[in-house]
Amino acid sequence: MKLSANLGFLWNDRPLPDAIRAAAAAGFDAVECHWPYDVPASEVKSALDDTGLRMLGLNTRRGDLSVPENGLSALPGRETDARAAIDEALSYAQAIGAGAVHVMAGFASGADAHAAFVANLAYACDQAAPLGVTILIEPLNRHDAPGYFLVTTDQAVDIIRRVDRPNLKLMFDCYHVGRTEGDVTTRLAALLGDIGHIQFASVPDRGTPDHGELNYPTVFAAIKALGWDVPLGAEYKPGGPTDPTLGWMAEAQKI
Ligand SMILES: O=C(O)[C@@H](O)C(=O)CO
Ligand SMILES: [Mg+2]
Known about the structure:
Residues 20-250 form the Xylose isomerase-like TIM barrel domain. The protein is α/β, with parallel strands linked by helices. The protein has a single domain (3-254), classed as TIM Barrel (Alpha-Beta Barrel). 39% of the residues lie in helices and 13% in strands. The chain has helices at residues 16-26, 41-51, 79-96, 111-128, 153-163, 174-180, 184-191, 216-225, 249-254; strands spanning 3-6, 30-32, 57-59, 100-102, 134-137, 168-173, 195-200, 232-234. The chain has an 8-stranded parallel beta sheet. Helix 1 (16-26) runs parallel beside helix 2, helix 3 runs parallel beside helix 4 and helix 4 crosses helix 5 (153-163). It is globular. Bound molecules: ligand LCNOYBR7 and magnesium ion. Residues 34, 59, 102, 138, 140, 173, 176, 199, 235 line the site of the ligand O=C(O)[C@@H](O)C(=O)CO. The site of ligand LCNOYBR7 has 9 residues, from loops.
């Protein structure tokens, strides 16, 4: 399998351009990140150009972390802020050639939140389409993000149907699905047409993929058998320096 280093967690002890270079040196095929906004896009672009890696995706800003907020797009009454965050993410994505923006929903519930999320996602998709950018939504597990609006893949697919835009896709994070829903390989196969990106980490501790409840060599082989060839996002917490945690890569790359 091809692999993408999620620099929100891997090498997050160094500036993003240095993390991109570290990912290239370690043999990753691509990178992805969470919130790159403190780093000028030109510096990220230089590192991507130097290494030949593509930034697959980035997230919209979460909002006010002191509240805390975890995204704005499902917050009724916050449409102006949500759309500013979407515009900012799309502009940054365009500047660095990133292919996707994960629009974060936020802590919310109920019909008004659903309506706000659908409307803001339609806006995001319509702004992103001329740029060739995919919009992603990602269910987060209720243990790590209690109160987050988007929890299950069924909920995500329902929203994707309602928004009804070809560039809206599901970010299938095997870690979150493993913690909330289980049945990971069956769900991957069933949802394949709606999936825009796949991420992984051990369940339940979000560490390296060579331990835990999910057998990742089996999961990766199942993903390969589905014909998926986009780099898979390694989004695990290394718990210290990243390089010593990469022992799982060689086997994954052989699949
Ligand atoms: O799984 C995650 O936490 C990330 O993919 C993300 O984008 C939200 O923080
Ligand atoms: Mg994820």
